[in-house]
Amino acid sequence: MIDTVLFDLDGTLLSMDQNEFVKSYFGLLGQYAASQGWDMQETMKAVAAGTKAMVKNDGSMTNEQRFWETFTALSGRERKSAEGTFLQFYLNDFEKLSGLAGGKGEAAQLVRRIRRKGMKTVLATNPLFPRIATEARIRWAGMATEDFDRITTYENSRFCKPSLDYYREVLTAVGAHPQNCLMIGNDTEEDMCTADLGMQVYLVTDHLIDGKGLGAEAFRHGSLAQLENQLDELLES
After folding, report:
1. What would the mean pLDDT of 172-180 be, rounded to a whole number?
2. Closest CA to 156 of 198, 123, 190
3. How far apart are CA 41 and CA 207, in angstroms?
4. What digits encode the pLDDT tens for the residues 10-64?
5. What is the DSSP secondary-structure string of 148-210?
6. pLDDT tens, residue by residue, 128-152
7. Could you tell me which of 36, 41, 55, 4 has the C-alpha nearest to residue 176?
């Protein structure tokens, strides 16, 4: 029986085109850096390198530590001061991206329906963002941090998707066994890889990502609305 449900965020619970979001996010961050007197090109190269370093993280440090180790080495900026600048970006300019998101009602309804059944819910979003940015995107989806037993961010994670070690870390944190878990996501590689651990999976196709051409047909799949209708069956499988 399923007792823990893991959700991806961007493109799953939060309706958005991920490519459009990433492009807009980096553009906005670059503009903000320039407004603070930073060299835009230099800053964004360091951000991109820090992001790649997190994706390849080996677990020896948190993603947060890995990002700042890389960013400060390439940018030459002192971490404490740079963190303060980034914090102001997330408190102010980041909110401008909320217009790219939609579909607030049904996602929150789905998560809360599962919680009423007494199951654990995990926001298993790729932990490349600080918690403040993840909390903002949770709000954009019409939900609250209290809707989840665990939320993965760059502060509390040592791996990234699609590493199975990322998911093992999540399961250990919430005390769950893979055979009792359901993973719901929109990426055939980053989310559906959990089937290799023995999890049940459901591929949300509203904003499907299929970078390796695995095909939706390889997994149980449908829109978020269709998932709502199939939920009881999935949870009892």
Report:
1. 98
2. 123
3. 30
4. 999 999 999 999 999 999 999 999 999 999 999 999 999 999 999 999 999 999 9
5. -SEE--TTT-S--TT-HHHHHHHHHHHT--GGGEEEEESBTTTTGGGGGGT-EEEEE-TT-B-
6. 999 999 999 999 999 999 999 999 9
7. 4
Considering the domain architecture, whether residues 77 and 190 belong to the same structural domain is answered as: no
Tokens of 207: 């904003």
Q: Which two tokens stand for residue 198?
A: 């023995």
Rounded to two decimals, the pTM is: 0.96
Beta bridge partners of residue 102, listed in sequence order: 15
Residue at token pair 């502060």: 155
Return left, alpha or beta for 203; rule: phi > 0 is left, psi -120 to 50 is alpha, else beta. Answer: beta
Buried b (16+ CB within 10 A) or exposed e, 191-218: bbbbeebebbbbbbbbbebbeeeeebee
Last-in-domain residue among 66, 97, 128: 97
Q: Is the domain of 77 the same as that of 112?
A: no
Per DSSP, the three-state class of 114 is: helix
pLDDT at 7 over 80: yes
CATH of the domain at 186: 3.40.50.1000
The mean per-residue pLDDT over the stretch 97-105 comes to 85
Which residues form the domain of 42? 19-97
**Total count of domains within the chain:** 2
Domain-terminating residue out of 73, 97, 121? 97
> Does residue 122 contact residue 49 with C-beta atoms inside 8 Å?
no
Tell me: pLDDT of 237 over 80: no
